[in-house]
Amino acid sequence: MSTQGRSYNDAIDALNSLQTPYAIIEARRKAGIRPDAASISEMRVYLRRIGYSPSDLDRLNVLHVAGTKGKGSTCAFAASILSHYQKVQGIPRKIGLFTSPHLIAVRERIRINGHPISEEVFARYFFEVWDLLGRAEEVEIARASEEKGKGERETSGVPMATRPIYSRYLTLMSYHVFLKEGVDAAVYETGIGGEYDATNIVERPVATGISTLGIDHVFALGDTLEKIAWHKAGIMKAGSAAFTIEQVPEAAAELKKRAKEKGVDLIVLDIDCRLKGVNVRPDAVFQKKNASLGVALAEAVLSKMDPIFKPSLEKLPKEFVDGIEQVVWRGRCEVKVEGPVVWHIDGAHTVDSLKMASKWFAGECASRKGPRALIFNQQGRSEAIDFLEGMITALKSQGQGSFEHVVFCTNVTYAATGYKRDFVNYQYDPKAIEALTAQRQFAEKWSALDPAAKVTVMPTIEEAINHVRGLSRSGALNGQETVQALITGSLHLVGGALGILEGADAL
């Protein structure tokens, strides 16, 4: 099972071949084909083909997190708390973190003890899974042929592909990596939804957490909060602790209903009173809710793994405080000073999260002088045009004006060379990207909402950043002023921007 001669770049190229092309996505959308229970049954078959059963995943002591907003931050808090506890107490031995999407490099999605696995390790395990799936299918085809039956190659009457699609492949690979590397506590963020998400083949998580719910991924999950909550609640399991935070009434009622059906005691958390005096960043209610959920999840797994750990009702242990205060979650509420430009970077993909990002930006630069610039994109999401008005309204609600300069760009990274390999995405209409269709629609909408703004459309992230940098050299600044820039929207945009600003290969 040698991976000799096959590099990280080879692995990424092979992985990109598992993306579902835009034309097929559109055909499925028009036909109304959505993820269903077959997704889970297929994942179980793939897991068996690489040599595991769902019960093997129990060794990972999984903390499983779903939600619309804040699920990534919740995972980051839980993993950071466990990491600081590990440094002092030696438990857990190894901590895994599986999240999506990546910001710069695919390998960021699979982390051990806080660090993305190396290119060498990624390539080795990627091709181990690749080869195992290829050989397993050959064996099953031969067996099915001998038996003159269909065998397990078909699930629900639909032939299975040799390998799962992009995101599911990475999920499958993460199980293999964590089990081979001896991970004994793993934090898993769902991709989309929960009930039919590839991560949901974990049958006995130690605990599950559901962060704030809102309207997103309408085609896959439904167009009401009740439908979305139904999907997210799918990660709750009987016998496992289950936590959520305050939700809007429709979502709360559905979570409560599904918990009862599953025989789960769902605990609804208030903001943890023990966070008083703890430096949660940003200092906002939504982040304190995420931290509270992260604390509850970490306490659940440590109560199982460490015989001497006993949660205190009065005060958080120092390891917990350090884990919260020193958490690193890139691309969320980051501020980077680059000479005369102050970059504010926050990935946000729903109307509510974009309003929060705008308010955060307004608070950060309220005491600073200088022109304001926005770089934004949400590719392939027609509803994103309606997000723009919410951003302007959010800024005005803070008693501040809007942006003097607005740039809409694609997620293409570089002007000369195009996408970084890890950013190649076949799921969007290439013709629309080349024609800047969405970007021109955004520009037209923003100009109608705010005629005073200088609106620009750029074909790449690099050119958008250079355009904003140019504002500091164009006589737009006076005296002690700096350009206040917000990069928000797609995490692919945010990741590409961070890669350019830092010259980094992974975060």
Write the SSE topology.
Layout: H1 8-16, H2 22-31, H3 37-49, E1 62-66, H4 71-89, E2 95-98, E3 110-112, E4 115-116, H5 119-147, E5 154-155, E6 158-159, H6 166-180, E7 185-189, E8 207-210, H7 218-221, H8 225-232, E9 241-245, H9 249-262, E10 266-269, H10 285-305, H11 318-325, E11 334-338, E12 341-347, H12 351-364, E13 372-377, H13 387-397, E14 405-409, H14 430-434, H15 437-449, E15 454-458, H16 461-471, E16 483-489, H17 491-502
Parallel strand pairs: 1-7, 1-8, 2-7, 8-9, 9-10, 12-16, 13-14, 13-16, 14-15
Antiparallel strand pairs: 2-3, 3-4, 5-6, 11-12
Keywords: ATP-binding, Cytoplasm, Ligase, Magnesium, Membrane, Metal-binding, Mitochondrion, Mitochondrion inner membrane, Nucleotide-binding, One-carbon metabolism
Family: Belongs to the folylpolyglutamate synthase family.
Pathway: Cofactor biosynthesis; tetrahydrofolylpolyglutamate biosynthesis
